[in-house]
Amino acid sequence: MLLRDHFPTCLVLLTRRDSVVALSMAFLTPTTTTAEQNLPARPPFIRWGIIGLGDVTRQKSGPPFWKCEGSELVAVMRRTPGKAQEFAKQVPGGRCVGYENLEAFLQHPGLDAVYVATRPGTHLEICKAVAAAGKKVYVEKPVGRCAVETASILKAVGADKLYTAYISRAYPRTEAVRQLLKEGAIGDRITSVSYVLHGKGGARDMDGPMPWRLDPAQSGGGLIMDVGCHVLDRIDYLCGPIKFLRAEAKRMEPGTGVEDYVRFEGVLQQANWTPLLPSRNAYVSCEWDFASVQNLDELIIRGSSGSLRMIAMSAVAPVYVLDKADKVNRVVDNFEVPEHTAQAMIQAVTDDLRGTRRSAFLSKGENALRTSMLLDRALEGYYGNRDDRFWEVFDSQARR
Ligand SMILES: NC(=O)c1ccc[n+]([C@@H]2O[C@H](COP(=O)([O-])OP(=O)(O)OC[C@H]3O[C@@H](n4cnc5c(N)ncnc54)[C@H](OP(=O)(O)O)[C@@H]3O)[C@@H](O)[C@H]2O)c1
């Protein structure tokens, strides 16, 4: 990485000291050869900041901000004293600054875009502040606690400036499934989609009397908000948007007061981004049984001449291609385990911001809103309504 790529940052650092103004000016007017002058302008580096430095940022999504091409992590923020500075110290280059205060963080010189990696209950307030400061936003899923909140985030940030972290869209494995659909491995039409999850679907931090993922004020509901949103988005991306038909949400085990079982039915709609169009009335059924002690996670996409079967909540598990008689005739595997599962998506967002590459799999506010709306429909029977601030009137004590 050339220091020249960081001119704006260098200017701020150097001109803080009167004695080195001359040096900075000399540095800003480098001698260029005719060959260099004829080169196309170098795409800018994106100077990223992160708000929220917890579990997801530690390994999945933090390091890509300094490892991706064209990206630099210049500022990080969380409230606990000393913790942001501690995080900033591990960022190579020694230029990342840690903040404990949102206003100060947003004033960091040259900040272009911000990754919001806090819990969903804080997304709206933080995204509004980041957007008001004129920065682009890449926000974690689920974007809002309900569709009204997701729509408010989309409105505050703007469709062109909002990116959302449905990272599985960017996995090579997801692209492999798209290729199989495109090449007709299951026929020329999708006829149905079914998904079943038994168990917690790999949800983390589930210890203690009230994990945050089961507190509607922080997460928007039970585990379907955290885990189920990924699958609904993946079906949307691979097979098309889902029109809601009916759902049932209930509580199987006593304890936290939120739902732990959801059954959902819908129909696939036609969409221009899917590799294979669905048949008329292609049925979608999903079942999440978070109370089950079994471990089952299976997504089946059925077509006119066969089916694809796979674990949904994985970046690397094999994808099985079955014929009409349900016999496995191909296995697509050997997917590399990514060091940081969010890196491919963060590279794509960075490329999009730099204007160097536009990936078809980018996740934006519109698809996040479709998923939020489906989650609302799936859960409205349990919560009574899913309007703005429904968590304030929902009596979780009474449901225990
Ligand atoms: N895309 C994926 O595959 C994936 C995977 C896991 C999680 N996630 C999502 O990532 C988000 C974060 O989850 P997590 O598990 O990392 O949560 P977490 O471990 O609880 O971390 C949250 C972080 O946010 C900070 N924070 C909280 N409130 C804040 C505020 N008002 N201003 C600034 N910082 C604040 C916390 O630090 P302080 O308390 O010190 O401020 C902490 O560093 C959630 O939306 C989750 O669903 C996504």
UniProtKB/TrEMBL annotation:
Gfo/Idh/MocA-like oxidoreductase N-terminal domain ranges (all copies): 46-152
Pfam families: GFO_IDH_MocA (PF01408), GFO_IDH_MocA_C3 (PF22725)
One GO MF term: nucleotide binding
Tree of life domain: Eukaryota
UniProt keyword list: Oxidoreductase
InterPro entries (alphabetical): Gfo/Idh/MocA-like_OxRdtase_N, Gfo/Idh/MocA_oxidrdct_glycsds, GFO_IDH_MocA-like_dom, NAD(P)-bd_dom_sf
Record-annotated GFO/IDH/MocA-like oxidoreductase domain positions: 176-309
UniProt family annotation: Belongs to the Gfo/Idh/MocA family.
The protein's name: Gfo/Idh/MocA family oxidoreductase
Upper classification of the organism: Eukaryota, Sar, Stramenopiles, Ochrophyta, Bacillariophyta
